From TrEMBL:
This is S100-A14. InterPro entries: S100_Ca-bd_sub (IPR013787). Residues 7-47 form the S100/CaBP-9k-type calcium binding subdomain domain.
């Protein structure tokens, strides 16, 4: 059995937590399932998504329309945005305009 790096384990955790949050084993999450996952798994990075306005912004960032389920690709869009913001906050020279791109 291979030894996985911390990064590989983190990616596996993202995937398993996303799909594990679906109560009916659907490939998409309902809004309440998504909110539950955010509050339990990303409480510090997603603090601003607790309000309806914050949740609406998260849905916009992910490219999810009203009434649509949240796919893993939608979730990954949010992770990219959060990762970029986290990098900009913790990298040397913070306070300057961060132009990094997370693909």
């Amino acid at each position: 059995m291979p030894q996985y790096s911390e990064l590989e384990n983190a990616i596996q955790t993202l995937v398993s937590q996303f799909y594990g949050s679906s109560k009916d084993n659907s490939p998409t999450l309902k809004v309440d399932e998504f909110k539950g996952m955010l509050s339990s798994q990303l409480p510090n990075l997603a603090k601003g998504f607790g309000s309806e306005q914050g949740l609406s912004k998260a849905m916009q960032l992910m490219g999810v329309g009203d009434g649509e389920g949240i796919s893993f690709q939608n979730f990954w869009n949010l992770i990219q945005d959060l990762a970029k913001k986290q990098h900009c906050l913790t990298s040397p020279g913070r306070g300057t305009l961060c132009k990094c791109v997370v693909l």
